[in-house]
Amino acid sequence: MLSPGYERAPLPPLRETPVETVHDTRAEAEKKPSGKNDRDPFLDNAKYLTIVLVAIGHAWAPFAGNSRTTGALYMLVYAFHMPAFIVISGYLSRSFDGRPRQISRLVTGVLVPYVIFQTAYTLFMRAVDNPDREFYYQKPGFALWFLVALFLWRLTTPMWKNLRWPVSVSLVIAIAASVTPSIGGDLGLMRVVQFLPFFVLGLQLRPEHFRFLQSRPSRRVALPVAACAALLAYWAVPRMSSAWFGHAASVQQMGVPAWKGAVVNLALFGCSLVLTACFLAWVPRRRLWFTALGAGTLYAYLLHVYPIRLARVNEWYDMSWVGHPLGRVTVTILAAVMMTLLCTAPVRRVFRGLMEPKMAWFFRPDPAAAARAREHTPTPDRDPSAQRRDSSAQPRDSSAHR
Asked: What does the pLDDT average to over 52-77?
């Protein structure tokens, strides 16, 4: 833990990126000379706060249409919580270049958990809702689309790093996808492509960009901008669907012409980008009580699905107290507490075998890694200290001084 006076530390240089965006605790942590954990508090704070907002958004969904105020808050949160989550994921992926070790972590930290949790979600829904629910892996269950997206985004990272205008290219691809109904819902590809620009943007960010957002002028601007966005959301509630921010359907399915939908999506991208900047401007940079929880955000993201779905299937939202303002505040607090608990170390220890399986048996040995290990392994004939000991043990030849 950092000392109490440690504040506003510069973002650390990225080493080999963890598979979890937001997420793998094994590779993202670095060690200080003192041996203490040197994770950047800003990133962990941002990850924790965004994952809490994800759960709150899911918890608000059933009654967002019953109150204009709740609907406005729901729309406001959905405008930036996943974009912010994805931008951070892209930033943490900057060093991904497809090395064997990175590929193995991508498989074990993203692809394998997707298969495991997609299977678990199907069994869960069979037990609580539909006994005849089919096993299929091409259609991600509730919220599981993000694992597919993260896998595909990471694989394409080397390509984005080599383009001259990666954000512009990804935005053109996203807009083109939004007007292409034939893409469909397999593997959540519509969401994968439409959210792609935020991931690519994260790849382009540097520590100085975050420092700029954290400056005093940026923070002062963020508050009135967010207030204006809240008023705009309140105005928009009866005039547009919040489904626009989910990016799960084409514009034709949203009932608008292609050209108009393309313009709307372009505007929504700009809106989400501005609100993401406002959010990051006010994320604390110092270590707080919830900073360590940022290491468990992917655990919370995957595990919160089950209580959320259970509440909807069992119609807990139909209880009379939920419809009152105090009931909605209670639901919000419960969602935040749930995500906080799911990010804790005990939960990570219990589910680490599912979320971070080692699976060394599944991959070929990396020759480069083995060579590096041999180089760093001292041997009797290469150990300088051994050579010095051997030379000192030999008797001096007096004839050498003659």
From this structure: 89
